[in-house]
Amino acid sequence: MKGLAPTELGVMLLSLALLIGVARALGELARRFRQPAILGELLAGVLLGPTLFGYFAPELQGFLFPQEGPNAVVLDGIASLAIVLFLLVAGMEVDLSIVWKQGFAALKVGVLGTIIPFVIGVACAYLMPQAMGRQTDADPLVFALFVGTAIAISALPVIAKTLMDLDLYRTDFGMVVVSAAIFNDLVGWTIFAIILGMMGTHSAGIGIGTTLILTIAFAIFVLTIGRMAMHRCLPFLQAYTHYPGGVLGFAVTMGLLGAAFTEFAGIHAIFGAFLVGVALGDSSHLSERTRVMIDEFVSFIFAPLFFASIGLKVNFVTHFDLPLVLMVLLVATVGKLFGAVLGARWGGFPTRERWAIGFAMNARGAMEIILGTLALEAGIIRQRLFVALVIMAIVTSAVGGPLIRRVLSRRQSQRLMPLLSAKTYLPNLIAETRWDAICELARVAADQAGLSAETIIELAWEREQLAATGIGHGVAIPHARLAELKAPVVVMGVSEAGISFDAPDGQPAHVILLLVTPSEEPTIQLELSADIANMFRDPQCLERIQRASNYTQLMAALKAAAASKQE
Fold first, then answer.
1. Which of 161, 168, 176 has its CA nearest to residue 530?
2. What one-character DSSP code corresponds to residue 418?
3. Per-residue pLDDT reduced to its tens digit, 85-119
């Protein structure tokens, strides 16, 4: 077997170092400006690709990043591995139980937020093929289905990250948006897998009928028998293998096996990795801390490599078409907003939350770019439309967070401190478990609100089962919404030993704040959660509260934290 020559090996290592190093640096810079890291990672590819580096030093750029030959094959293989692992992680973020537990409200947003933009995209591709960038030799049906999928799909990772940045991820609003995005992703990727099967680009001689049967059978197997098998394997791995290497190796192995099967079956490898991620992420044995570690392993090494490599394939200047970019951006935004806002209205959400849900679902991000990359490789689209899709994905992701913040903001936001009193402060919680803590705090809240403690406990625990409310930094925010409540009630308890609320950082909660808010004012809970998360970002805030032994000292600690936050 002929391997890479020493020079070729050296060039490969140097090119990988440049791609990862520049992508990570620009990704961190993008985060500094409160933008998605993917923006910087894509920019790295643009700088190192034919758009800029190739313009000023074409020979050197071609030497480091060749378009053909052994090094090009190796880089393409590594990029393919990166996208498979990224979709594995994206699948792990999908929690199917959330969709069912949220009920019909989230499902209505997901259904209309998928169907309406899909229909609009297909109609535009049929009625205005040239304006949407269709080439004369493209199959009209395949192209229309692709455009519909590209317009309909959302980016679950970007949506989740945006909600986390706004301290809304573990709120009721956040769970509805995430549930709708999960439904959207599952439907979108399934449709795109069928499109690839129709083209036969991955069929390896297998007919479309056989491909669809194999794909459906594989999906059913993975989400039933496979899911249960992985759920039973995880406790064994956690008990008898090195942490977290055992679970990490198992997740990657299963993801690659699933990817291999769907690639052989005639559907792209990413679909298999995505389904395995969904099945693995559904296990209650997979802790939040392990999820975060797997996510960081992929997101900080492989994801930057893939997104930076996109810029090596396309010249973003020569293939930039302003009318096409504006058309794609207009159709995508109008279609998604119309569908998601209409679904939120059908689900009974207030006006401001409807638009916030629409802006959140409008974020395309990484999923759109991956979709466009695969379509470009399959010959469904050409480079002009690909560039338009990338720009659309970046713009919709960048504006989502600011628009959500603006539409949910009120002139006088609800704050934590005015709602606390000596009667709603428990400096020494007796509880040792999540259930006991919620019960202890709920009884105090019931006395203050003149309501049934059992009702508050039931609603708060139901919400806790939906998604854990530990936000990290030693803080948890369980909450409940009651229709008969007129004003919000907050009860704070301090646990010296700490109570596990399955926080992302794996730390127990020492400060537990039970939020009981009126159902008619959903933004109150969002604002309180954001205020608490913002306050406790400073580690000294937790230390001050733990040292407080009475209400006066608590108020002094909270005012000191508020003052340091404003500096």
1. 168
2. G
3. 888 887 787 666 666 666 677 888 989 999 999 99
